[in-house]
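Question thread 4412

I'm putting together a teaching handout and wanted feedback from people who do this every day. The idea is simple: show students a protein as raw sequence, then show them the structure tokens that encode its fold, then repeat with a second protein so they can compare. Below is the first pair exactly as I plan to print it.
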Amino acid sequence: MLINQGFDQASEDQWPKQDCSQAQYSASSDSALAKTSRFGSACYKFLRPYAVQQAIISAICLFARVLVENPQFFKWPLMFKTFPGLVTIILAHAYYIGLNQIYDADIDRVNKPYLPIPTGELSDRQAWFLTTGAIHNVGILYATRASIGLPFWWSPPIVFITTFVTLFFVVISITKDLTDVEGDMKHNIQTFAAIFGLRKIAFFCTGILLVNYMGAIAAAIYLPQVFKRYLMLPAHSIFPLWLLFQVRKLDKENYSKLSIPRSSCAVPSTIPQRLKSSSCNDNRLKLIKPTTAKNNVKSSNVFPSKRPTNKSNLIPARLGKSRFSKSLLYCQLHERNSIEVRAEVESGGDSDSVFAKISRFGSTYYKFMRPYGMLYAIISATCLFARVFIEDPRLFTWSVLFKAFCGLIACIFAGAYVNGINQIYDIDIDRVNKAYLSIPAGDLSLTQAWFLVMFDLAASVLILRFMKPDLITTSLAFLFLFLGTFYSAPPFRFKRSSIATIIVLPLASCVIHNVGILYTTRASLGLPFLWSPPVVFITTFGTLFSMVLSITKDIVDVKGDMKFNIRTFAAIFGSRNIAFVGTVLLLVNYTGAIVAGIYMPRAFKCYLMLPAHAIFGLLLLFQVRKLDKENYTKEASENFYQFLWKLRILEFFLFPFI
């Protein structure tokens, strides 16, 4: 999923593919530009991007916290002063991360052979050249307050974030060894995972994190004057549910190495053997021979498998050309492979149990809902709802929160209905473009798909009726369902026309969605709907973003669209041109956001609007350059499209606070 997404950065460098690096060392690689490019890529991997991203984001948020509490101290010289401080933090992280890789080179050749030193992309001399949490939080907060002439103060929010993150890093320091047991035991590294086993460590750390989240909820309840309950309570209730779901998933997959880095989508050729847990009594990892395509798993009676088993169909999952494979296509193929491995382990007879069938059905339904779309619906609805209460916290009541939760469930079911209808009517196209989806893969029959779609529609309408909405809310909801249905279904089938697509999708997914949620929230509080500058901004920004998504979504599907005479812009003008046009439109979007922050300081918080949208624009340019370098392959195009969804979600995360 997107989703799966989101939040996948830690797995970005887990399973690289060797095809790219071999191709890079071709005859044309002797140029200075090629050498510089290879060295830059190796340095990027050497930095361990997920850790550096955590440092950057945490530093920016801690800095922003001080200015949110004291907006009168904002000034441009302060912004320029913080930039060198951010660079210093990045270099400090790079130092100790590099030092760890240099001294752990022998261990990493077993546990992490994809890192630059074990693969030979960096020599020891180059690594030394590049090298030549509580402290992090307190240091940034102290430096920020000192730069504006304020004394450092242990306020409750600072105590909370320092305590919470410290405990979180304790958990990370323990769980980071779950994937490294083999190398640690070989080199006599006494880690908790090697001593006590994977299962005990995973459950112990889950318990610590649950205590962490319960402490956050208790702080919000007993300190309402310090913390914003309408943010703290739902956020720290959702996070542990997500955590429990992932732990249950890990336990079901028997703590295999493949199940720990969830977003890895292909096993590198440098790893000749697959790691897999043994029995329930011994949670340590043992080496087994890799399975081949011939050892297919018998499909269940509930979801008969129709996917082919010849080797040609396994090539995309094994021989992708991207070094960091994160696309939805490849993640779905990897997920199916991990399910097959698990089925081989559990083939002793209990695979036909009721629990196993329900579990498979739930997993299939989850995929059928298109999780990245559901994630967007949940986050956008939550942030639009939160915006109203951030403007006036006195309006918050528990009854409104309960009603909003029901509305959120109705939104999820409505989105699942629209996604399901699209998959049913696009089944022939999806067999070419998206063979990993539930119906083309044979995980769902058409009858089962229709049943789920009708269930989603009925649940959405019934919840809406239970909430007793007014005429405008009801009209907006049914207009969304109408457009979502006939975007895919005859007789209109709007998706056949490129012009109709860029009108219908933004209208449904942005205008109706955003305005509907904001109107419903204010109406439930007895307030009139107002086109305030932030509402106009998010609606305009989101509409233009949706238009870009509606044209770039087809750069992955050109082959199937041309085969079935679907006249998309990507099929007519080519993937490169459409990606360029979409990038320009989004840059216009971000430029407009920066201009709004500068010229409307009373309506927007420029200390958030300016840096955030500048960073988003730079990230977009980096991803477009990456897409162009990979020559618009299907995997690279899928990665780019998923990245655009992440940018869209980040904008909604920002919206309550601008």
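The second pair follows. I'd like the answer to focus on this one:
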Amino acid sequence: MILPYLPGPPMLAPDSPRLSPPWSLRVLLAASMLLPFLAAGLFVWHDYQRSLTTASQRVDRIATIATEHALKVVDTNALVLDRMGELLRGLSWEELRAQRERIHQGLRALDQRVNQLRVLHIVEPNGDLLAISIAWPTPQVNLATRDYFRHHAEGYNGVYFGEPLVGRTSGELAFTMSRPRLSGDGRFDGVYLGSVPPAYFEQQWQTMAGTGERYIALLREDGTVLARCPPGTQPSVTPAASSLLQLARAGGTEPSWVSDANHQEWLATTRRVGQEQILVTYALPRSEILAGWRRTTAVVLAVTAAITFALSFVTWLACNRWVAAQAALQSLAGTARELREQIEKRERAEEQLAQAQRLEAMGRLTGGIAHDFNNLLTAILGTVQMLERHLGAQADDRAKRLMAAARDAVARGARLNSSLLSFARRQPLKREALDANALVTGFEPLIQRALGEAVTLRLSLSPGLPHCHADAAQLEAALLNLAINARDALPEGGEVEISTRTAWLSRADLINNEEAHPGPFTEIRMTDSGSGMEPDVLARAFEPFFTTKAPGRGTGLGLSQVFGFVRQLGGHVAIRSEPGRGTGVSLFLPLTPGTGVRVPEPQQQRQAAVVAMASATVLVAEDDAQVREMVAEMLREAGFRVLAAADGRQALELLENGEQVDVLFSDVVMPSGISGMDLARRALELHPGIGVLLASGYTGPVLGKEVPEFDILAKPYQRDVLVRRIAGLAQQARPTVA
């Protein structure tokens, strides 16, 4: 039947992995977010460096201009002092006192012609003021305590710059420029000086430096500030004088960074004014230098953010469109996969039905032939017996041999007929209550002889089995047939195991088997480590006269006889085989009527869980090859279907590829970057109902302070403990097992 297609929006299955954009779109999205800011960062850095360079050039240029201006002022004032010296040349102090008014007029004339040097003084050797340009008559003042007077009196003959003071006569703040008057023999003979108002420099500097935060100062070599701009600035908000003097002593002219008392950085340079003992310094604070840069940076970042948002939004739309397209493709692929699975399920069901019908038809045909063949054998055997009675003692040796051969042929035909009747489920059976464990144990020597010395026989019998309902002789014959087949599959020796347990079969397990009913059964399983069967051979294994053995090695009736015998009892036969993995044949025998399965004690409950979950699938993740193979073989012997993975990444690939797994059994520490904990969490995301059991060679404290979130089985572990734990988890994952 072809199902109609109903269109609808693309939807992902609940267990489908979340789609992510391809790496190309991810890289493009990251680039759209990072590259604009990277470019902006480069621009901002370049602009930062440019701002510092521009500021350095500005500081250097203004410092040079201010130094040249200060040098011109100093030279002009020095000329004025020289002119004052000419007024006094050749005259004694008695003569000078007599001409005090003339001297005052001369000083006043000089004062009016020069703006940068005012309030001209002439001081006698004892410190008394002889004349002053701004006052007449001359005030009675002694200046012997002034620093400039003391320095000249102590022998300093150059131009001296006195500290800023408020003049006693003028009342103005000013610093002085002075020179000593020397006698004919070079001794100190008085001082002549002038006052320099700091405002003169401040006006020039304001015009020169413009507006904004900056600092220009005229310093003495001892750090005394003679003039500064802006005027009245507190020392705590200007570069430290000691730092500025260090720049001067270093001898360099390149601007350097210095700090003030508030730890604010200034870009400053200090220059000497000619050969004098004064310095000019100019400094710009970092905040002023970077103010324009910060404004530009804010604009650049705002524009960059807008560009980044636009590019990221466009890329995000592209990613969403890609994810939507992939989701639609995945939805279509999932629909196609579901259709293929439905078709495959229907084909398998049809194939199983055809196989069952073929076997049923062959059974009816074989039964009819065997019935007629029995009649023929009866006639032949009766005829042979009549001949023997007829001839009696007259029969010679040749006649006796021929009749014995006929009897043997009839016996072989009877055995062959019995096999045919067994397959046709028409042979007479002696049904009785049997202890399967006791029967297997008593029949072990004969099975071992049939297997030969090269094959090792191992029994794994489950205690406390309820009695089964079967024909002891036919059951032994069936086990013998299975043993012979196992021997032929092990030409170079190997291992055969016979195990018993109680199993529950559902209606799904008994498909195409109308003789059996769902419920508890006694299972006798024989497994070998032989070469196994190809799928096409496995599909015909129960057909009568089908054999892969060489001519003369078998009739092809062994498995068909087993199949018919168990079906006639109302039981079930299952076979599992893979090339290179051996073969296992399970005989499910009905329990004796009225015999129920006892309610297990706690230990029996665990064994029942093992039996009930024997068909579950276990994913074993173990990086040690020997441990992995040992665990896988243990679980296979217990009846589980086992998938093995060498590390967490390989196990995760099996889970992501859709493998149906009931229990994950994983080592905690594994390579490839995925631990057992990580694998367990990811497995629960992919398969929420999966059971998880972890194994570790360390005890709890070694795992750390973290409380384990999964059951942990300590190594080394026993087979029974492992199987019980796996079975319990499998029973939780799949309450009913097909």
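Top answer:
Good format. For the second protein you could add a caption like this: The two ends are 26 Å apart (CA to CA). The chain has 18 helices and 23 strands.
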